[in-house]
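Per reviewer request, we include the raw input and output of the structure prediction for the construct analysed in the revised manuscript.
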Amino acid sequence: MNFLFESIKAAAFLILNLDSELTGIVFLSLQISIISCIIASIVGIPLAFLISMNNFKLKRLFITILNSLLALPTVVIGLFVYAFLNRRGILGSLDLLYTWTAVVIGQTILIIPLITSYTISVISRLDVRYKRTAMTLGANRLQTSQVILREAKFGIMSVIAAAFGRVVSEIGISMMLGGNIKMFTRTMTTAMALEYDKGEFVLAVALGLILMTISLLVNFAINWFQGKSPE
């Protein structure tokens, strides 16, 4: 028990003194997660509206596949992207493997199905009268989508917050595609794993406390956005 308290005390000291290694890892993790969420949102949200606003034969199958991809292990995505980015892969000439850009690519692929599927659920929960009223007034599909987007904005923000929480705590893709290189690709989760393997727990505990705080803030944000969403 004394070991735990001493580790937490030393970890708190690192956090309060803004240790350079600690802050570098945290900022890189946040940078990668934010960029991944932005790119995935640019792809996933319009895709969700495209699926929701149109009826086509394979719509139900497409949604089922999206939902199935939510359970896809991160190591599978890591292997898939690695196959493209390694020197013998199609994109090997770009020399992206073991860079934070490679981690962004992997994490973006991870959360596109999440953002798309959850946004479809948000849209489907909206009162159908929003869509009917807009179309009755002569709105086209794009204008109707804009009306729905305004009404669903808080629900969609909660989806993006959930996606951020997913990638900021991810380790498989970060380790496989980033390589856990100090000051270049080392994220909070990969650094925690490394410090544990080394038997040096202070930095790992400090990162764990920060990660728990971020997760708590993300959950507060999700609950707040959901509270603002129309019934």
